[in-house]
Amino acid sequence: MQDFLNPFMTNIGAQELSALEADITDNPVSYCHDRLNRPVCSLEELEKQFSSVNIPECPVDTGIYTRYLSENVLNQVMPVSSPAFVGHMTSALPLHLPALGKILTALNQNVVKLETSHVLTALERQVLGMMHKLVYNCDDNFYQKWLHNGDHALASFCSGGTLANLTALWACRNQLMPADGDFAGLTREGLARGLIHYGYSGLAILVSELGHYSLKKAVDVLGLGQDALVKIATDKDGKICIDDLLIQLQELRRRNIKPMAIVGIAGSTETGSIDPLDALADIAEREQCHFHVDAAWGGASLLSERYRHLFKGIERADSVTIDAHKQMYVPMGSGMVLFRQPTMADAIEQHANYILRKGSKDLGRHTLEGSRSAMSLMLHSNLHLLGRQGMAALIDAGIEKAHQFADFIHQQEDFELISKPQLCLLTYRYAPPVAIKLMREGSEQIRQKVQDMLNALNQNIQTMQRSAGKTFVSRTSIKPAQWDKQPTTVFRVVLANPLTTPEILEDMIKEQRQLARQSEFWEDLQALLSSE
């Protein structure tokens, strides 16, 4: 038995593991550049390495396991800290965070309840209060009253935007059908009985066609059905079309379907577009429905005095989602949902005899998740060690870099900017000038052929670039207004990493140009273009 207790009592044979940990955490960016700048193993190869499902019977030496990790796992992780990895939200992190993460792991706190977190409960409420003030800017008396009030919640942490959106809409749904007469409330009797009692044929949530896929999950989990998510058309800038929203609301009234919530997007995942939040707040108020803002992407930009005006109206939202693991530079797994009125969280309050007791200040009383790590400490550290000015400077630099890169793309005759940056995201594609000319002047049949070929080519370029392992952009398919809303495969770039330079981006474009000529679709595209 003593042999199995050793890992809990002494750090036997861990020198190699400690050396590997230091090699990575002392400078993750260098590790990514020096060790991971190589062709990527195919998924098929990796699956073969991890095909055994037998649990090891006996412990192995720590040094042997460390070498296994180094040679088979860590050498194939994605280099998300690299300044040339510009395809997703993950970025290089401030170098104090790996050490802080190690401390949190060692202490193993669980903020679901006071008994396993204590001081970190108070700290988390403080951080949530800071974020609430960032969005709603209430006076000091408000925060003195509500900040540490255990019976209500200004906000809550969760693993990310998906759960934040779900939590907001869960509270919205439960508030919509409270106890009334002989009806004990939706929370007790369920959605079907609630619809009957209140006389609705159904509920609906309205969001632009660029709404995050988590909303589709939310209507499913909440029992509304995926058809309850009503997608609204967008304009040429990716913003929700108010006229189409009003038409859809009129149609819902005709069908006796209650609009449960209107969702405004403050930074769409694909293009970074921001809806007219003030106008949406007016409509939600008139329709007497919940107004939720998904600011998972854009919420951090509220720290910027230069760009905060883009979010005018967010302070009128009943609830707001923000992801700290995007542009607040904390590790993955740190989302938040904020409530304008602290009493809104009462609609989702839960209790258990062994934890989350009535009258307690357990954070888990108002969260969908149970056990959670103290990720709030990561954000707390950034807010103090970087400060508002430092974080704002990072956000401003990312947006400015996106505008500079957009200008650079404009100067390339064989690349086309698809969506102009509103935040630090933009989309573009490889498209030779002859192809663009045919797309504008050719017959409908020719335009479709060229579009299909460009889609295939750009998809292939992105796949080859990812496999080469030098640089990375993501790809998506959007329906830009300039191409008659035709599905268009584009490169998606996120310029959140403060270490990304213009030179890196220029080299990335050069690589994409070279890969285009190496693509299996290149000759077919040239043949098509020369035949017209």
TrEMBL record:
The modification N6-(pyridoxal phosphate)lysine is found at K326. Its cofactor is pyridoxal 5'-phosphate. GO terms for molecular function: carboxy-lyase activity; pyridoxal phosphate binding. It comes from the Bacteria. Pfam families: Pyridoxal_deC (PF00282). Keywords: Decarboxylase, Lyase, Pyridoxal phosphate. GO terms for cellular component: cytoplasm. InterPro entries: Asp_decarboxylase_pyridox, PyrdxlP-dep_de-COase, PyrdxlP-dep_Trfase, PyrdxlP-dep_Trfase_major, PyrdxlP-dep_Trfase_small. One of its GO terms (biological process) is carboxylic acid metabolic process. Belongs to the group II decarboxylase family. This is Putative decarboxylase involved in desferrioxamine biosynthesis.
